[in-house]
Amino acid sequence: MSHPFQESLSNIEKRLEELTQAVSKKQERIFDKVIIDNDEFQKLFKISPGTAANWREKGLIAYSQINNKIVYKIEDINKMLDDNYRPFKK
Fold first, then answer.
1. In 64, 70, 74, 83, which residue has its Cα 20 to 30 A from 17's Cα atom?
2. Is residue 7 very low, low, confident or very high in pLDDT (cuts 50, 70, 90)?
């Protein structure tokens, strides 16, 4: 008969594995897309609509606007990250 603590630990490990897989799948879905909309962009970077607009106005991020809908290419998001990358200084 196993110890209650061991059973609890096993349950925690199982749940942690399930959550890790769920997070991995969610992350993969965003970057598997070709484009994301402005709401997804703001959630991804945890920024406000004003900050997203500021980044567009400053030319930090390329975007497309069709009527009132703003979308971003994932490749442009990666370019923005690469262009603004600051490596550690030794």
1. 74
2. confident
Q: Give the residue carrying structure tokens 């990358």.
A: 85
Digit-coded pLDDT (tens) for 35-63 = 999 999 999 999 999 999 999 999 999 99
- Cα–Cα distance for residue pair 45/34, rounded to 1 Å: 17
| pTM, entire model | 0.63
Element (H, E) at 43: helix 38-45
Q: How far is CA 11 from CA 1, 19, 32, 57, 86, in A?
A: 16, 12, 32, 50, 41
User: How far lies 88's CA from each of 35, 48, 85, in Å?
Assistant: 30, 28, 10
66 vs 23, higher pLDDT: 66
Residues 6+ apart with CB under 8 A from 41: 52, 72, 77
